[in-house]
C-alpha cells in the first residue's frame, strides 16, 4: 500500500557572506547527530555565458535503489533547478527525503532552500520519475561568471527494494486500468491516460477540456499521425529520460517522426529530448539532415551547433548538395556562407617567394 501524500515542510533561507564557506551548514550540523546518511550531487557551471540550451545535467546517482539526477534548465525564466528521483522497476512507488539545495557563486551570497520530508512518488500518474523544481531569479547570479549547484539528499522513506518489480512494459496498444481514453490513428487504437497527456501537452489539455466535445468521448480520432511514432513518443513522455541513445524508441531512424509529432501536439519536453539526442556526440545522423530538422522545428541550439561544427569545405559542400539545403531559410544560408568565408580566411596561405 502506498502512503497518502503529505505536504512537505519547506523553508527558504538566504545565507550571508560570512556563511558562504559552508553552503550546507545546517546539513553538516545534522550529520553530527544520529540520523539519515547524506548523499551529495554537485553540478558546477564553469562558464555561465556558454551554458547550452536547454541546460546542463549532472551524472545520475543511485541512492537507496532510486536513480537521482540534478538538472539546471536555462530555457525557463527564472532559471530552474530540477532534482529528479526515478525508479523503472515499478509503476507504483514513493520515497521521502530531506533536501538541502544551494547555489554558490564567487563573491555572491549563498542561496539555499531546505525541504523537509519531501515526497517523491508516481502513484497518481504512472510516471516513472518524480521531480522537485527550485526556481531562483536570474538576478541572484547577475554578473556571476560561474556557479555551483549542490543537492544534499537524506533519504528517510522506503528504499526501492520495498516495491515489487513490474516486468511488463507500459504498453499503449492494449487496455488496462490506467488508461481512460482511446486515440484512433490510421485504424490503430492507442490507449492513453488523459491527465498524463494533459500535463505534458497544451494540445491535449485543450482537447480534453470541457470546451470540446471530445472531452467526454471514450474514443477520439486523430488525423495525420503515424501510430508507430506516436507510441514511441508516448514511451518517451512516460519514461522522462533524455539520455536515450540508439534505443528502441529514439534513434536516428525514429527521431524525425517523433519530433514531428512532438511539435504537432505541443510536447515541448519531448522536443527538447529529441534535440538533446541529436546534439549527442554518438548520434550518427548526417549534418545536413540535422540542420534541416533544426530549421523546420526551430531548434536553435542544434542549428548553431551544426554550423559551428563545420570544419572543412568538403563538409559545407556536402550540406549544399543535401536535399535539406533547398529548404533552409535565407538567414541560415547566409550563416553557412559566413562560415565558408571564415574557413577560407583561417586556412594557411601559400608562401610566395
UniProtKB/TrEMBL annotation:
Q: Looking at the Swiss-Prot or TrEMBL record, what is one Pfam family this protein matches?
A: BTB
SMART domains from the xrefs?
Answer: BTB
The organism is: Pristionchus fissidentatus
Q: Which residues form a coiled coil?
A: none
| Top-rank taxon | Eukaryota
BTB domain location: 179-246
Q: What is this protein called?
A: BTB domain-containing protein
SUPFAM superfamilies in alphabetical order? POZ domain
User: Which InterPro entries does the annotation name?
Assistant: BTB/POZ_dom (IPR000210), SKP1/BTB/POZ_sf (IPR011333)
Amino acid at each position: 500500500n502506498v502512503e497518502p501524500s503529505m505536504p512537505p515542510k519547506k523553508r527558504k533561507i538566504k545565507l550571508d557572506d560570512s556563511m558562504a564557506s559552508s553552503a550546507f551548514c545546517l546539513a553538516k550540523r545534522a550529520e553530527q547527530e544520529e540520523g539519515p546518511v547524506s548523499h551529495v550531487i554537485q553540478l558546477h557551471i564553469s562558464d555561465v555565458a556558454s551554458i547550452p540550451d536547454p541546460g546542463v545535467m549532472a551524472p545520475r546517482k543511485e541512492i537507496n535503489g532510486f536513480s537521482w539526477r540534478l538538472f539546471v534548465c536555462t530555457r525557463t525564466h527564472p532559471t530552474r533547478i530540477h532534482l529528479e528521483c526515478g525508479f523503472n522497476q515499478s509503476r507504483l512507488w514513493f520515497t521521502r527525503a530531506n533536501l538541502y539545495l544551494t547555489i554558490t557563486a564567487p563573491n555572491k551570497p549563498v542561496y539555499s532552500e531546505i525541504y523537509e520530508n519531501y515526497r517523491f512518488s508516481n502513484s497518481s500518474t504512472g510516471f516513472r520519475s518524480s521531480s522537485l523544481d527550485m526556481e531562483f531569479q536570474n538576478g541572484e547570479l547577475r554578473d556571476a561568471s560561474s556557479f555551483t549547484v549542490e543537492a544534499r539528499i537524506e533519504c528517510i522513506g522506503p528504499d526501492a527494494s520495498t516495491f515489487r518489480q513490474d516486468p511488463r512494459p507500459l504498453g499503449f496498444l492494449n487496455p488496462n486500468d490506467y488508461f481512460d481514453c482511446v486515440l484512433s490513428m490510421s485504424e490503430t487504437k492507442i490507449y492513453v491516460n488523459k491527465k498524463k497527456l494533459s500535463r505534458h501537452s497544451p494540445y491535449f489539455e485543450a482537447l480534453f477540456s470541457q470546451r470540446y466535445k471530445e472531452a467526454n468521448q471514450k474514443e477520439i480520432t486523430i488525423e495525420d499521425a503515424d501510430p508507430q511514432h506516436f507510441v514511441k513518443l508516448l514511451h518517451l513522455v512516460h519514461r522522462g529520460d533524455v539520455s536515450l541513445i540508439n534505443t528502441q524508441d529514439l534513434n536516428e531512424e525514429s527521431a524525425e517522426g517523433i519530433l514531428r509529432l512532438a511539435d504537432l501536439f505541443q510536447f515541448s519536453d519531448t522536443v527538447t529530448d529529441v534535440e538533446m539526442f541529436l546534439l549527442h556526440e554518438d548520434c550518427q545522423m548526417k549534418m545536413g539532415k540535422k540542420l534541416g530538422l533544426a530549421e523546420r522545428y526551430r531548434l536553435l541550439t542544434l542549428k548553431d551547433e551544426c554550423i559551428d561544427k563545420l570544419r572543412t569545405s568538403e563538409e559545407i559542400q556536402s550540406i549544399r548538395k543535401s536535399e535539406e539545403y533547398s529548404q533552409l531559410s535565407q538567414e541560415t544560408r547566409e550563416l553557412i556562407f559566413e562560415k565558408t568565408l571564415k574557413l577560407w580566411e583561417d586556412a594557411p596561405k601559400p608562401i610566395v617567394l
